[in-house]
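Our consortium's second objective concerns turning raw sequence data into structural hypotheses that experimental partners can test. To show how far this objective has progressed, the report includes one record in full. It was chosen at random from the queue rather than selected for favorable results. The single chain below, 467 residues long, was entered without modification.
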Amino acid sequence: MPAREFCGVVGVSLQGKGAAPFLFRGLRSLQHRGQESAGIATSSHGVVFQRKGMGLVHEIFGQEMLDSLRGSVGIGHVRYSTTGSSDLENAQPIVVKMRDEDGAIAHNGDIVNFGRIRHRLEAQGVDLLGNADTETMAQMIALEFGRTRDLEAAIRRACSETIGGYAVVLLVGNRVYAFRDPLGIRPLVFGTLEGGVAVASESVAIDLMGGKTVRDVLPGEVLVLERGQLARTSRMPNGGRAHCMFEWVYFSRPDSVAEGQPVYDVRHRIGTRLAREAPVEADIVVPVPDSARPQALGFAETSGIPYAEALIKNRFVERTFILPDQRRRESEVRVKLHPIPGLLKGKRVVLIDDSIVRGTTFREVVQMVRGAGATRVDVRIGCPPIIAPCYFGIDMKERKELVAHNRTQEEVAQIVGADSVHYLSIPGLVESIGLKSEELCLGCLTGRYPVEVPEERHRFQKSLQEF
């Protein structure tokens, strides 16, 4: 059960159709990426219509509100706050002014040098209304656009000064500008719809809008969507790729495809590899639902140990890791999951989960399984130990929070109350994903980050000069 995660974005451009219903469906398919707030902004004849609120997408957007969002072009966002407080002021999209045009912006990820950029903007007389890095990026672009009168050039210039991982959708006039950080740390895909085009954080969003995914947006690429078509693209200089490995381990839906790698297949391969790396004698293999199911199936098939759905998830409870405080996360685990005693009583259980970050909520799960009568609980984790912070969009920025930091597997097992804990190896993860290690961001597993992190005190970083 990993840390709190970031956000999801959608952008559409259509011909002769309203954008809001498509954005609504796209955001609902991305609800797993953020449950604190959601918002939609559309544009019609240069007028921006924006609605947002705290809560889930379907709770915020009724038919009357969707009808008020006019126009055939727009963007949408679901949020969990990683930078900026959790309140409506920082909910996205954020309305911005781009020279003489109204616009709106939404973003997934984190800007590492956010504080420095914010201070510089304020010194230049820019008034910032909130404390989210999204607004800071918007003001950087607006400032540069005022100088150059070339919005695409302004975007590329702003990105060249921005350190971090991000995928951004920017609505200006009748156009959507979609762009991705130069290393592609945060995901973004492009696809076609009936009568239009779209971008989204995951391929499943385009699928569930009735469209077809065409390709991933390239690292550092800027797409311009206009009048239902991909009008043009350009690309910022970049030094490679560093896709976040957590997209395959946990974040993305299993029915998504990321960088050409089907997420379900990757997770199944993780389970297969895990069974070979850390075999165990047991009676049943039990996944922690939902994201660990493919891993558990791969483990069971390879090991020959029967698979059992012995933990039942309450589907009307929000994801625990994106709740705003640890006390709520721990209490919600007991509401979210419930064991089937008849399957667990007297059994030696292999408990499979996708990852462990803090370990506190996972301890509740182990206790639940033991309380249902399991005689032994061996834990197998489909992700290597998380030993270092993430600075690119995941809320785990302090080493002291990380249960694996400076601890052995035996010590982690003692903390979570398991008989044993074994993690997938880094080579096993890389092989399961199917990309080269140099194409992945493994910073939280190694402490070696793909870009320079000004706030990072530990060494082993790559220098910006290496790219």
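The partners drew two points from this record. Residues 1-5, 319-324, 458-467 have pLDDT under 50 and may be disordered. Residues 258-446 form a domain with the Rossmann fold fold (CATH 3.40.50.2020). Both points have been shared with the crystallography group to help prioritize constructs.
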